Amino acid sequence: MSSPSELGNASSVPLQFLLFIDDRPNSQDSVQEIGQCLTKLLEGHSHDLQILQISKHPHLVEHFRLVATPSLIKIQPEPRQVLAGSNIIQQLHKWWPRWQQELETDSGQEDTVQSPSCPREISSVGYSGELMKMSDELFLLKKDKEELLQQIQFKDQILAMLAHDLRSPLTAASIAVDTLELLQHKPIEEQKPALRSQLLHQARKQFKIMDRLIEDILQASKNLNSQFQVQGSPLAIADLCQEILELYQVKFSKKNLSITYDIPKDLPNVFADEELIRQVIANLLDNAIKYTPPHGSITVGALHRTTQKVQVSITDNGPGIPNSKQETIFEGHFRLQRDEQTDGYGLGLSLCRKIIQAHYGQIWVDSRPKQGSSFHFTLPVYR
Description:
Layout: E1 15-21, H1 27-41, E2 47-53, H2 58-63, E3 71-76, E4 81-84, H3 88-107, H4 125-184, H5 193-223, E5 233-235, H6 237-247, H7 249-254, E6 258-262, E7 270-272, H8 274-291, E8 297-303, E9 309-316, H9 348-358, E10 363-367, E11 373-380
Parallel strand pairs: 1-2, 6-8
Antiparallel strand pairs: 1-3, 3-4, 5-7, 8-9, 9-11, 10-11
């Protein structure tokens, strides 16, 4: 048997095969069984078997239109034939007599000369394998190029927004600091303590806005254009929600919000990355606090939706989201018109979607204008 890197050395072997496998542990058992079967059946006939993993050769999988693994493809002698599924050994025993006849027929025939206007079909597994390998690499390079261009475009947009959005709070903070400096040089009786306190408050507020903008940028550049590496483990989602709510008590009290906790005690554990899910819950709570009016209410609930999924919901009684925008809000950089005068870039929900999708879950919103919003996401139950 040959490795994929040796495809170019097999052009002279009369019997040539490609075996496509996946990354399941029992795939190596299939390789060994099929290899032994070929060696026994083809005794006295030289042959070449190439092993290819489908995850490393997606273009070849598409080229051969493979729908199952393992898949054994007979390249030579022609015609090409695909054997797939769990009974490849039985199929080999069935087809070997016919292949043997084809070998005997081919050995008595000379190569057919093709005219220049009709290119010769590539029949060598070595040559065609190298050609398909290059096509596969070209496909991956194009994909990488597209992703890099998207990242460059995203970073350009972020830099432009950062330069624009930092200007206003920076100007306001500078004015407050300059005014404080002027007051400092005046006699004590003219320094106006109330004004000094107001200016200090204004400066701190603007610095917090700048800090939030920079934090959003760093978080987005770190996660938005990359694949999350989920470190899954059993997670008590009820305990995590309770822990986060306790940390948010100060934020709730500032707006006199009432909080309802509706999570059953017998809720099963989920299989998830605790830090990533903490980020999702915190982001949804921040949004709920931001849009819920003073003395409003927020509900954090969960339910065992199916035998395989747990659903977590965060509901507010804020202004709601128009039906036409309920899917768009999860896209990167999208902001509702009501948010255009507030700090932030609208990246939070996009990050939430990426995190939940990395956990093979779903996230969505149910909302009606002036009646509040309910954000829901699902996570797999730990087995």
